[in-house]
Each structure stands twice: as structure tokens, then as C-alpha cells.
Amino acid sequence: MERPAAEALDERPAKTGRPRATSRAELERVAFELFDRRGFDEVTVEDITTAAGVGRRTFFRYYASKNALVWGDFDGQLEYLRELLATVPESLSTMEALREVIVKFNHYDPHTVPWHRRRMALILSVPTLQADSTLRYNAWREIVTEFVAQRAGLPVTALEPVLIGNVVLATSVAAYELWLQDEDADLTELLEEAFRRLVEGL
Length: 202
Known about the structure:
Blueprint: H1 24-38, H2 45-52, H3 56-62, H4 66-71, H5 74-86, H6 94-105, H7 113-125, H8 130-152, H9 159-181, H10 187-201
Helix pairs in contact: 1-2, 5-6, 5-8, 6-10, 8-9, 9-10
């Protein structure tokens, strides 16, 4: 799942005038404030750039679209997931390795949790983001599938890697859905429990 830029989480006091956004984190902060007030569908790229005090060129330097902004640096996070999987010791079973990596990948410092919750609430609830989410989840799942296939010495189209890739994604999404339903829930604990049950079942 997607991880937010930590610096975007700063709870900054309101400023007078139009602040000039010069970073990905600042653009996300401005955009999410607009989404909170008006709803995702009602906010345009022009609204975001106007509120941030920048031009469209600056926006599109960081994001291909408004949908892409919600996901943050998704390509960077896919690379991070690959790096985590590459460091897993061979002594761990495939499912234990995936449990360890997915929990670590989705661990956040306490001060970043509110921002991540806002991001994931949009991703999992806004209908206009669902098609885009499917494509991004596919890319995330393919990394898991490739890892399993490599571990098992199988092609990525074989049943075992494809099945595990889909199950791991579904398990992660289920944990996130439960987390978003309860503000007091701990995401790490939910993921740990979900993957514990998955490992025991497999």
C-alpha cells in the first residue's frame, strides 16, 4: 500500500495569502485540505494550483493527474517494496517473508498516521479513484508474484505465485478497511494478525 511523504504531515498553522508550494509534500497538503472541504470530485487541478500559488507546469512536474497526487510517490514506493523483498533472508519461508515485508512496508511513525489515514480513505472510498487504484494494485501485486515465482523457481504465470500475489493483496486491503473503520485501531497489529492467519492457513 502507498506510503505518504513524512514531511507532508506537519500540522502547520494557517497562513495569510497564497502560500507558494515548491515540493511534492506541500502540493499534497494543499490538495488534501481542498479534498476535505469540498470532496475529491469537486476539486480540479486548477483549484489545487491556485490554492498552492503555482502554475500547472509545477503540478505536472510531480503528478500526471489529480488521481496520481492521491497516491503520492507510488513508483518510489514500489521500488521500496522491491528493496525490502530483496533483503529477506532465505531462511524464512515465502509466506513468513511476505508477512515480515508487508508489515514493515506499511509501518508508519505515529505522527504520519493521520495523513496516511486520509490518503487511504480516499483511495478505498472514492468511486472515481477505483479504476486507477486497480492499475496500481496490479503493479503492487505483480512485485509480490514475481518474488514468489523466483523463490519457487516457477514462471510468474504459474498458479502458486499468482494465487499468493492475489491473496496477499486481498489480505492487506482487508486490514486497511478494518483500520479505516476504527480510529483507535493499530494498522501494524491488524496486518500482523491478518498475515498470521494467512500463514497458518497456507
